[in-house]
From TrEMBL:
GO terms for cellular component: membrane. Its cofactor is heme b. Residues 1-94 form the Cytochrome b561 domain. GO terms for molecular function: metal ion binding; oxidoreductase activity. This is Transmembrane ascorbate ferrireductase 4. InterPro entries: CYB561/CYBRD1-like, Cyt_b561/ferric_Rdtase_TM. It is a multi-pass membrane protein. PROSITE patterns: CYTOCHROME_B561 (PS50939). Its main location: membrane. It comes from the Eukaryota. It comes from Acorus gramineus (Dwarf sweet flag). Keywords: Electron transport, Heme, Iron, Membrane, Metal-binding, Transmembrane, Transmembrane helix, Transport.
Amino acid sequence: MAHRSLSRFSRRSRKSVHLGLQGTAFGLGVFGIWAKFRGKDGIVANFYSLHSWMGLLCLSLFAAQVLVRFLVFGFFVFGFLAIDWLITASPSDF
């Protein structure tokens, strides 16, 4: 929605807004799970509904998606930069 509703702005601005919204959603989700775990009745007692378990699953999958995205991005970008540096480096650089 951030990309469609902000179509008159630059691509970089839209991506920044999208990143901010995703970060806010993740932060609020982590705060919600933290509040559930901090309850006085114990951990599982606060997760008695399917809605709670689905929220935990959704937040876990979102965190896994972000982790994999950073690993893949880091591998391709920094891996290719390292390969390029190794190919173009002169022997005196080592």
